[in-house]
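step 4 of 6: structure.
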Amino acid sequence: MAAGVAAWLPFARAAAIGWMPVANLPMPVAPSNKNKHQDELIILNVSGRRFQTWRNTLDRYPDTLLGSSEKEFFFNEETREYFFDRDPDVFRSILNFYRTGKLHYPRYECISAYDEELAFFGIIPEIISDCCYEEYKDRKRENVERLMDDLEDNKDSKLPNMTFRETMWRAFENPHTSTMALVFYYVTGFFIAISVITNVVETVPCGYMPNQRDIPCGERYTEAFFCMDTACVMIFTVEYLMRLFAAPSRYRFMRSVMSIIDVVAILPYYIGLVMTNNEDVSGAFVTLRVFRVFRIFKFSRHSQGLRILGYTLKSCASELGFLLFSLTMAIIIFATVMFYAEKGSSSSKFTSIPASFWYTIVTMTTLGYGDMVPKTIAGKIFGSICSLSGVLVIALPVPVIVSNFSRIYHQNQRADKRRAQKVQKARLSRMRITKSGSSSAFPHSKRNGLNQSLELTGSLEEDQQLKKTTSLLESQHHHLLHCLEKTTNHEFVDERLYEQGYLQTALQNFPSQSPSLSSEEGITGTCCSRRTKKSMQPLSATHTHSHTHNLQELSALHIQCGEQQPLNTSRSSLNLMSDESGSLNCKSSGLVTTAIISIPTPPSNNYRASPDAPPPPNPDAPPLPNTGNDVVKISAL
Amino acid sequence: MGAVVGTLTMQTRQRQPSRDKVDDELEMTMVCHRPEGLEQLEAQTNFTKQELQVLYRGFKNECPSGVVNEETFKHIYAQFFPHGDASTYAHYLFNAFDTRNNGSIKFEDFVMGLSTLLRGTVREKLEWTFYLYDINRDGFINKEEMTEIVRAIYDMMGKYTYPALKGDVPKQHVDAFFVKMDKNKDGVVTLEEFVIACQEDENMMRSMQLFENVM
């Protein structure tokens, strides 16, 4: 129940008069407001700034500091006001929460200061209203991340008992942690560079041989280059093996991109070693050397920006794929058109459509090599259209990639996606919590209240304790709901219990032979055994039972019931999953003047599928006028 | 290039239609109503000045414009019955409070109704209840009207009840009570029959006293 409508509770209670003429049962006693004082203003002095409000306003939320008796600790006798040595600006929001029922988070406030104030006044942040909740959550997450970053910086200090393996792994991942790691980092970087440079220089022609032919340096200084290559590969192999050893999860490490690059970088060398100098395979061997250039990707371990670029391309793969597709479409269209346009001309280079692909691509990307040019007029027209549209099509990928790159590069953008998913889920769960909280409050308090009344020897302190936990407002609201229950002669139960009960009936009717009588067909009469015997016959078709043994049980139970002096506790034991569910609870006739017949289901353990849970009874028959004192209500268990 | 610009502007265009709706709602809530003076109300009702003040504060909090329309009324009433659907009963209540049938309740109507309910004589309360039950205001309650009211009451219970609501429980409920009230068995209950039937029922009389100290 929102606090804002607390003022309308008297109205709702007064409107309950409309239920009276059709009520089945008499109404329960209303909670008395013994301490019914005139509504008074109380003064809250927060660091010198005085706030005033009605006492009732604060009483709306009895589980906060201001709503409970905890504020008495802050009461100043001389000045007759409550003094709090806290931030008055934040207190404004807190007091508005009591007034309006909505807690707002002001943007200019620091998140940790706000959190502290909320914690002091006993208000949980989850009830921040929707308008400010996202902002609050964002700031909170930023703060947490900042704290975590600080923590991570501190965490790099070596923990005392890390194994050698863990130390190595940490050294590999964070090179700045120790000098050795830094040295290793630079050495590997140097050798990657050396390797790449040697690959490049290998192919540069240097010097002349006697037969007047440029040969690349690689062939001239074969041994030198071979030694360099060997050295680099050895370093890389050692590095890879060390990483593999140190990895916490070797399988996961082997699957990671970086390790695959490592493997691809060093594999050609070993394959080259293994392979013989066969003429057939040397061609393939030469191709393999191309893969040596992948060593340059090893630099991405050393560069954050390179990693982000790779991540960008990966993440906008779908956009790029679509663009590629549309580009392909355009190429095919224009190539076809050009081919047929140039078909007529003699000595045309456009020999086939695939041959025209090259022209189309070169034209669309505005390269214009000029090795293929159209000669017919139609060809020239279409060629110009092609180059003009090419400008448009090529311009499309650029903003996509740029926007993706900036989107990924900024920290906030990443938090956006996370936030969008979490907020929706959290919001739904919050709504569910508040809804179920309010709707399950009444059944809960009912159970608690009845449990208390069960203990007839309960001491006075327990009573007072019970009263303290529920405010007057709550008790009045519960009294209202109680009146509604009495009017309709049905009770509120928790959603969970209702569903459990449903499952019980489903379970029960299936395997067991429980003789459940339904009095819906208008069995009016007392629940004496004679009547039930009679009524059982017509129903035996619909229900699975027909043991005379059960009838005897029933009559025995009826007798039992008549003798018992019942407690008014049928509801509580029904809600509890207790072992005493075996005993029938009867309501004494003195308490009800209009008798309600319900179905006596013998609750012995044989008949129930799940012995530890009480089966729910079937609905009640319509109410009867007074039938005298020997009418007993049996609530089946 | 143009396509790029087009996609960028498409996002902003979607936000505009909602702004018009907000403007419309703003205009509607500008209608304001101020009640008559405190002394007049005190004379017309059975409440003291302080009680009227408390009532008005609560009223104004929920309805700053000074009038309650049916939607707000239903919303407020539904807060007290989170389990079920209180809108039908709230509708009938609204009609009972809205004595002038103009679709809105002013503070005066509200206070008059409450005065009858809380501080009125038994006869007045019963008359008010009769007025509530008589949906079509023809001076008679027939079985359908009573079934409607009882159904609305059962709706407030919601789905999760014990024992579970199976079958047409409201109808059975009404069958029993109608028989009790309709003395001359002519199918309708008049005001006199209603009053007499209620006064015979001690429980009801006792329950009516229950709400004496609500304020």
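step 5 of 6: annotate
 - Residues 452-469, 510-637 of chain A have pLDDT under 50 and may be disordered.
 - Chain A touches chain B through 73 residues (CB under 8 Å).
step 6 of 6: archive
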